[in-house]
Amino acid sequence: MIAIRFHGRGGQGAKTASRILGTAAFLEGFVAQDSPIYGAERRGAPVAAFTRIDKKPIRERGLVARPHLVMIGDASLVQDPAARVLDGIDERTVVFVNSPLTAEQFQAQTSLPGRVTTLDLTETALQQFGKRSAISALLGAVAGRLVGLQEESIREAIARELADLGLAVSAIARNQAVGVACYAAVPMVSVTAGPPQPFPPAALQVPTYESPTRGTARISAAGNSMLRETGGWRTFRPVLVPDKCNGCWLCFAYCPDGVISMTKEDRPVIDYAHCKGCQICVHECPTEALVAEREKEGGVAWKAK
Ligand code: SF4
Ligand code: SF4
Q1: Candidate from 240, 245, 255, 264 with most ligand 1 atoms within 8 A of CB, to mutate
Q2: How many whole angstroms separate alpha carbon 49 and alpha carbon 4?
Q3: Residue nearest to atom 8 of ligand 2 (CA)
Q4: Considering the entire predicted model, what is its pTM?
Q5: Which of 250, 267, 281 to mutate to test the pocket of ligand 1 (most atoms within 8 A of CB)?
Q6: Using CA atoms, how far apart are residues 116 and 101, in angstroms rounded to an integer?
Q7: Domains (ranges, CATH) in the chain?
Q8: Is any atom of ligand 2 closer than 6 Å to the C-beta of 278?
Q9: Where residue 196 falls among pLDDT bands split at 50, 70, 90?
């Protein structure tokens, strides 16, 4: 069996990537299983998805605790203990990170266990689609390459899964082309299959239920949300171009996290320690006075500047 765990942020497409991988494996005659896990819906919050691939029927269910391959769709998740991307990784695990850094640079900065490979899917999505978050086909294609699936299966799986989501034919074709390009470009580190996770030798299996706090935010004391610095979620930061701002307050009204305050001169001030980088303010600003700038650290570290 090969067990794959995807990590991403809400809106990036980790769940769709896991489905693309599972469908591609199914098209090649494997047994495949995929499922996601996410808590309260929130754009930018950590999410995970799981795919299992085997030649035999798959008896395991639930989250993948000891993955053979980990696909990290957003490098900032490595620094986020709540995302638990490092759970169950050992020196044999292959870890893919969506990052502009090379594998050597990334490991030097993070001491990430496992065998690391990287590719900058965010920049590719930005250049090819004009959208930084549309990486599901790219992430699924890279995973397919790392587990040894054929390019044609990946191409077909992208078409099927994106058609199910209602994408236009032209958009699907574009995703196929870019996905296949990423498939070819990722530095190859082969994933080694392993046995299924051992069950205890009991006749009757008792399912293990995850604590609700694993997938759901826990509020253990009133008024402590300021302590959760969601600035670490950000891949792109909104930056004000003061000359273009007309002081309309729309960014203030649209920010879902209330991290924009307005000066007496009607100019926005962004709290970068808590801005999660959703870019809604950039999208809604009528004068393009807010622009998205990519964080320089490649997701390895961030600072409120
Ligand atoms: S939405 Fe744009 S123009 Fe309006 S206050 Fe915000 S930055 Fe200025
Ligand atoms: S300031 Fe802009 S990018 Fe940051 S959380 Fe608010 S809407 Fe999203």
Answers
A1: 245
A2: 8
A3: 278
A4: 0.78
A5: 250
A6: 11
A7: 2-185 (3.40.920.10), 225-294 (3.30.70.20)
A8: yes
A9: low
